[in-house]
Amino acid sequence: MIMSVLIKLFDDTVKTISRPLASRLIKGAASYPKFRQATIKMGQKFYDNPVDEELAMQTTVQYLVQSTMLGTAWITIFDQMDRYLDRQRQRVLVADQAMEQSRKRREETWKEYDRLREETHEYELLILRD
After folding, report:
1. CA-CA distances (angstroms) from residue 91 to 73, 84, 97?
2. pTM of the full structure
3. 35-60 pLDDT, tens per residue?
4. Beta-carbon count within 10 A of 55 CB
5. φ/ψ (deg, to 5) at 46
6. Which residues, other chains included, contact 39 with Cβ-Cβ below 8 Å and sequence gap of 6+?
7. DSSP character for 130?
8. CA dist 130 to 25, 117, 120, 123, 127, Å?
9. Which residue, 98, 102, 99, is CA-closest to 110?
């Protein structure tokens, strides 16, 4: 249930981010003659038979919009994965630091134990002499 909501939210976010880019592509195809010819040429390659310029341009623009949306989605996924991995690295670093502190405390405790054992042994020797 939650996963489907997250997927829908992600999909809507990608569409929202991609719309301005797609709008600029459409305007660019209409405004610039060289870009228009390139989009028409590209659009006609999608069909076996020659088609009119409007259909070729519309097909190319739809392809570019979908490519832009897909690219935006991949960039978002990679960014989120990078953030996730950064958090994981930070957690590992904190855990390593905690382990190091624990090891140092354990070593200090063993040193104290050895020192007290030596003192006790010395007291036992003193008691046995008397």
Report:
1. 27, 11, 10
2. 0.54
3. 888 888 888 898 888 889 888 888 88
4. 14
5. -75, -15
6. 29, 56, 57, 60, 61, 64
7. -
8. 101, 20, 16, 11, 5
9. 102
CB atoms within 10 A of CB 65: 18
Tokens of 37: 């010819």
Closest to 53 measured CA to CA, from 65, 64, 41, 45: 41
The token duo for 96 is 């390593």
13: Cβ contacts below 8 Å, ≥ 6 apart: 76
Name, in order, each residue with C-beta under 8 angstroms of 10's C-beta and a sequence gap of 6 or more: 73, 76
Residues 107-123 pLDDT 10s: 999 999 999 999 999 99
Distance CA 125, CA 94 (A): 47
Token readout for 93 is: 């670093």
What is d(CA 124, CA 130) in angstroms, rounded to the nearest whole number? 10
Ramachandran angles phi, psi of 19, nearest 5°: -55, -45
Cα distances (angstroms) measured from residue 61 to each of 11, 12, 22, 108, 116: 20, 20, 8, 70, 82
